[in-house]
């Protein structure tokens, strides 16, 4: 059999085995994602596997670069990849995706035993300061009324506004001192 025939047979087998399985996702023919563990599991990870042109005679490309894996330390990722590469070398020349996925599921605890989640610190103060700054700018901006809008307001309220504004102006200027 040629490499393409082997790939097509394995692809057909994977589709039938993992049909309806939410852990398995075919990105394209020859490119897959497989989630090891439940979504809520802190020790879960996603394997990205891509077949090169000569797969299964050559090793598939395996990575842990999915966004889901960002919380896994680089050391743990390296351990997982090295253990998977050992499995790949043992199965080179044969259809190995099912074997790799099942091996990873069975050995998830051992692969993730030294897992210490990496926490990406996000400074909220800087975003709050930016928000506060923009709010301050919004508060400083006063509503600008056109002359027509001002006239309408004065006409609606009548002379009482004129009286109060006159009194207000007089109170600002002050009065005579009674000494």
UniProtKB/TrEMBL annotation:
Family annotation (InterPro entries): RWD_dom, RWDD4, UBQ-conjugating_enzyme/RWD
Coiled coil (residue ranges): none
SMART domains for this protein: RWD
Region described as Disordered: spans on this chain: 129-149
Source species of the chain: Monopterus albus (Swamp eel)
Domain RWD: 9-111
Top-level taxon: Eukaryota
CDD domains: RWD-RWDD4
Identification of the protein by name: RWD domain-containing protein
A Pfam family annotated for this UniProt entry: RWD
């Amino acid at each position: 059999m040629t490499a393409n025939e082997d790939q097509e047979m394995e692809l057909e087998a994977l589709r039938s085995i993992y049909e309806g399985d939410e852990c398995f996702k075919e990105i394209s023919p020859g490119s897959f994602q497989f989630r090891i563990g439940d979504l809520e599991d802190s020790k879960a990870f996603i394997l990205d596997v891509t077949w090169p042109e000569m797969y299964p005679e050559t090793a598939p490309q395996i990575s842990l670069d999915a966004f889901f894996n960002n919380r896994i330390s680089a050391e743990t990722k390296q351990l997982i990849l090295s253990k998977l590469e050992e499995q790949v070398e043992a199965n080179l020349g044969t259809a190995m995706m099912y074997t790799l996925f099942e091996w990873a599921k069975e050995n998830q605890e051992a692969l993730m035993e030294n897992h210490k989640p990496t926490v990406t610190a996000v400074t909220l103060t800087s975003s709050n300061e930016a928000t506060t700054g923009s709010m301050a700018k919004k508060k400083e901006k006063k509503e600008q009324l056109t002359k027509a809008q001002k006239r309408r307001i004065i006409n609606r309220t009548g002379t009482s506004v004129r009286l109060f504004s006159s009194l207000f102006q007089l109170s600002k200027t002050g009065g005579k001192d009674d000494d």
